[in-house]
Write a structure and sequence with these properties.
mainly alpha, two-stranded antiparallel ribbon
Amino acid sequence: MTATENGLNGTRTIEYLAIPRYEGDYTIPPIEFSYFDISSGSYKTAKSPSYSLAVSKGDPSKSVASGYINQQQVKVEQDIRYIKTEKPKFLKTDNFFVGSWGYWFWYIIPFVLLCVLFVLYRKQMKLNSNIALVRNRRANKVAKRRLKLAESYLKKHDKENFYNEVLRALWGYFSDKLSIPGANLMKSNIGAELSAYGVDQALIQQFMTILDTCEFARYAPVESTVAMDQLYEETSEAIGKMENILKSKN
């Protein structure tokens, strides 16, 4: 390719290998190429001459193609596939996944899981609709949370708030556990309800003593931290005993 004042000039040669398979007379048709001639301002077509070939029968043992392999290497496993000599593996044409056990398995498992989740959801909804049962189950958790707050007041030596939180923990626990509205809570009906649940008199008396101590201590002179610590431990212990008794009854 050379550059001149009139543009680029050059030649390009393309070689093709033709291997005739049968003897006889053959004609290679001409090749046409259209281009725009800038000197005449028009399109022109260049045409090559046609070629006639006479192919005679040759010797099969002498292959012309074997000498041309250096012109273009054959791509193994792409252009030519080797004959496989190992034992072939055959598949049944009637072996379909649709309708098989595996096919139905992936339908049944989600359906069973959906049924289980539906039953659990219905059960949970039924439990949530029973407000008394929900309050009964969360009574211990709520009481512990309030006692935790009372413990923080104990560390701050805040006597009034400490005894108030202990009272709230006990009254709230009895209200939730015995299903008695807060406005109807009294020591007398609490004792009767606990006796009906089978709670021994010693534990009932321990609860009554804690209630009396808290109500009295709110208006009494400042007590030592030791007495508050002891009351806190007794309250936690009494609620724990109460939970064990009620669980054994259920």
